[in-house]
Amino acid sequence: MKRLTVALLALLTLAGCGAESKATAAETGVNTSAEQHRITTPKNAAAAALLPAKVRDRGTLVVGGGFGSGSVPLGFYADDNKTPIGLEVDIAYLVADALGLKPEIEVTSWENLFVGLDSGKYDAGFSNITVTEKRKQKYDFATYRKDDIAFEAKKGGSWRVTGGKDIAGKTIAVGSGTNQEKLLVDWNEANVKAGLPAATIKYFQKNTDTYLALSSGRIDAYFGPNPSIAYHVQTSGETETIGKFSGAGPSLQGLIAATTKKGDGLAKAYQAALNAAIADGSYAKVLARWNVSNEAVTTSELNPPGLPLTS
């Protein structure tokens, strides 16, 4: 990822707290304004034809973004503190473009994102959602990115995480309801059976709280999405990645997907829209814009194998 100034980190921390002081795009080298000049893709008639009539006739794609107070660079607020921007938002815009729809991005908490999908409030979730076998019981998926997850710790230590045994006895922050949490729980169970101490799992509502706990030594590491951690490591200069894994465990490459309520007929339309964006190059431009080209996929898959029910 290209080098960004520490001013960007300050901007994003303040934005999460509703502060008025803002760094400018010129200072950070990244456009964090409400005027995003997003990459676009033309309407794809074949993909649009797959939409259920009620969505096509409505003309909008209601998207849930479960990044709450902000998860850079995946989803966060622009300088105006009200316009959602980021990688996941840009992908949602591409899909809406290809389907001939106007995107409506609604930012919510991670937990309420799935409540909204269940109730039909959201047509789709674009929020770094990993395909898992458990989630496939309730949701349909159209993949658009590889899922890598990582451990972040204070710079300069010797601790490295290469497997489950390396977390024994440590205190680790993780997002509630994420596949990272599931992997930690699974590793804890295996460690206890092997006579090793369990890791202590901590939860924070905001990324700023997580990083305050890390800098003060109240936690040993944060386990989260690789794009967010790589971005923070690069901008803060105070932390480092101490381990990286597939989000679906050691035997399967994890995949991030557009998520919708199972059986509502939308996933095939999303898959076709994503494949159209992949084919015309707009998808690659979006990933390059947020420095995650190494997580690109060559095709969108419908409900592929995901993180196992037991791992």
What does this entry look like structurally?
The chain has helices at 6-16, 25-28, 45-48, 53-58, 87-99, 110-119, 179-193, 207-216, 226-236, 267-280, 282-289; strands spanning 60-65, 76-77, 84-85, 102-107, 124-125, 139-154, 171-174, 200-202, 221-225, 239-246, 254-261. The chain has 311 residues and is an alpha/beta fold. Strands 6, 7, 8, 9, 10 and 11 form a 6-stranded mixed sheet that branches. It has a 3-stranded parallel sheet with strand order 4-1-5. Mean pLDDT is 89; it is low at 1-28.
Short description:
This protein is α/β, with parallel strands linked by helices and 311 residues long. The protein is built from 11 helices and 11 strands. The protein has helices at 6-16, 25-28, 45-48, 53-58, 87-99, 110-119, 179-193, 207-216, 226-236, 267-280, 282-289, and strands at 60-65, 76-77, 84-85, 102-107, 124-125, 139-154, 171-174, 200-202, 221-225, 239-246, 254-261.
Which features would summarize this protein structure in a list?
6-stranded mixed sheet, 11 helices, 311 residues, alpha/beta, 20% strand, 3-stranded parallel sheet, disordered N terminus
Which secondary structure elements does this structure contain, and how are they paired or packed?
Layout: H1 6-16, H2 25-28, H3 45-48, H4 53-58, E1 60-65, E2 76-77, E3 84-85, H5 87-99, E4 102-107, H6 110-119, E5 124-125, E6 139-154, E7 171-174, H7 179-193, E8 200-202, H8 207-216, E9 221-225, H9 226-236, E10 239-246, E11 254-261, H10 267-280, H11 282-289
Parallel strand pairs: 1-4, 1-5, 7-8, 7-9
Antiparallel strand pairs: 2-3, 6-9, 6-10, 6-11
